[in-house]
Write a structure and sequence with these properties.
With 149 residues, the chain is mainly alpha-helical. It has five helices and no strands. It is flat.
Length: 149
């Protein structure tokens, strides 16, 4: 029992050290896979719970599940730290100098507005006095009600 506890402590310390030393998200993902992947260290320990007797499971089950929870919490916290560092670095790189003058558009905006207003006025006038006939709409017959027999 003491050997199992020592093995869990050793595994936990090594996993937490790897998590703390991970410099980016792919490294964190590699640690997660090494711990919880199909052949991961914690996954292998969880698989052994089914073969244990009920008394062993009562002792080792909470210890293994506690290890799983502590490693998962450490992974989540480290991912959040790395994400914050990445956002801070991105914000520092994307600074905008607001003291620079505003770049003018190639066309004067008033002239563009005037041209578009004139063209829309021409378009409305030409469609109002168009020589195109209106579509013929058939006149429907009045609706009659049929009385029951």
């Amino acid at each position: 029992m003491n050997d199992a506890t020592t093995g869990l402590d050793t595994l936990e310390n090594s996993l937490l050290a790897e998590i703390a030393s991970a410099a980016d998200e792919p490294a964190i993902e590699a640690v997660r896979i090494a711990a919880f992947g199909k052949k991961g260290a914690v996954s292998e320990m969880l698989k052994t719970l089914g073969a244990m007797t009920a008394e062993e499971r009562q002792v080792k089950g909470p210890a293994i599940n506690g290890l799983k929870n502590r490693v998962t919490d450490a992974l989540t916290a480290r991912k959040a730290e790395l994400k914050d560092v990445a956002i801070t670095a991105r914000l520092a790189a994307e600074k905008v100098d607001v003291t620079l003058p505003v770049r003018q558009s190639p066309a004067d905006s008033a002239a563009v507005y005037t041209r578009s207003a004139r063209s829309s006025t021409r378009l409305r006038r030409s469609s109002a006095t168009s020589d195109f006939p209106s579509p013929k709409v058939p006149i429907s017959r009045p609706i009659t009600t049929i009385s029951p027999r």
